[in-house]
Amino acid sequence: MVEIELRINKAKDILTIKIRDNGCGMTDDQLSKVEDPFFTTRSTRDVGLGLPFLKQAAEITGGSLLIKSIPDKGTTINASFGLSHIDRMPLGDICSTIYTLILANQSIDFLYTYECDGKEYQLDTRNLRQILGDIRFDRPEVAGFIRNFLKENQEEVDDGNLF
After folding, report:
1. Which contacts of 89-94 are long-range, i.e. CB under 8 A and separated by 24 or more positions?
2. Is the same domain home to 102 and 133?
3. DSSP character at residue 31
4. Among 56, 89, 122, which residue terminates a domain?
5. Which of 60, 3, 39, 15 is closest to 162 using CA atoms?
6. Are residues 99 and 64 in the same domain?
7. How far apart are CA 140 and CA 151, in angstroms?
8. For residue 82, is pLDDT > 60?
């Protein structure tokens, strides 16, 4: 299970992203090295730039990155950003990112929460699985529903503003 939360609070001028999984987690030794761009647990490459870049992107906006992990339990990443800071990178097409994650990883359940100033929506693939049974998410009509659900709900929650 992967939980992704994206929360925007204009009054506090903050954007937060939380990603939590119930995967293998990290040992204290691995956690102490996670911000080193030349450390990775992957065997397919020798560098791991994702978290160091995320930390840098958060900190240059006055935000922060916090990572907690427990072996055999999972990992939680919390990143905060100054919402209106000139150096904050735009979110881009977050709906397409979530859509791609869901379709490319159909064996993983996702709970996506998008909130803007107290209004929120969620997409929980566990609910979709209950309704669809054995029908795959990459069937054109299902994929189209997921894409439209994400886009329409985001526009309703944030009034079509791009962050």
Report:
1. 89/57, 90/162, 90/163, 91/6, 91/15, 91/162, 91/163, 94/6, 94/154
2. yes
3. H
4. 89
5. 15
6. no
7. 16
8. yes
Q: Closest Cα to residue 157, out of 119, 130, 102? A: 119
Look at residue 114 in the predicted model and tell me its pLDDT.
98
Give, for 97, the enclosing helix (H) or strand (E).
helix 94-104
Note if the pTM is more than 0.85: yes
CA-closest candidate to residue 35, choices 19, 15, 7, 57 = 57
Question: 79 and 1 in one domain?
Answer: yes
Q: What angle do CA 74, 106, 156 make, to 5 degrees?
A: 90
Q: Are 110 and 100 in contact (CB under 8 A)?
A: no
pLDDT value of residue 26: 87
Q: Which residues contact residue 104 at a Cβ distance below 8 angstroms, ignoring those fewer than 6 apart?
A: none
Task: Provide the pLDDT confidence category of residue 99 given band limits of 50, 70 and 90.
Answer: very high
Kindly state whether residues 62 and 9 are assigned to the same domain: yes
